[in-house]
Design goal:
This protein has six helices and no strands. The chain is an all-alpha fold and 164 residues long. It is elongated.
Amino acid sequence: MAQSLNWKAAIIAGLAAGLVFMMLEMVLMGTVGGQSPWGPPRMIAAIAMGKGVLPPPATFDMGIMMVAMMIHFPLSIILAAILGWAISHWHMSLMTSLIVGTIFGLVVYFVAFYVMTAIFPWFAMARGGIGIFAHAMFGLILGWTYHAIAKPNSLDATSTATAG
């Protein structure tokens, strides 16, 4: 019998993975990418505000940041609900949830940066290793967090062996 989606777990997983994703993107863009850390939130905000908010200059702006978060976090929760449904429906183990979550994050990257560019062409300029890595981590964290909250008593054999 398939389990139903645990909405509490999906919401928390979406918020947690969304927060880590955004921080990871911003930190990596500012360090490894050699660009402004404010570029990723501006790209998200441009979905609603138009491409006029895109860099340069990619500086901090509270209004732009708020719009970005109002788009980013609901999308993260929706994505968490999709992955959470799959995890619950197919009774995935923790390891399977991590693997499927990572693949899911990569699919989200592909859709955002190759399909959605038909509507939001500025996403194409963010294609690359940082985005791929951040999306893979987003999916991994989604899978781990959802599984941990939705199934707190279902430990894998490896988890039980190392916990003692």
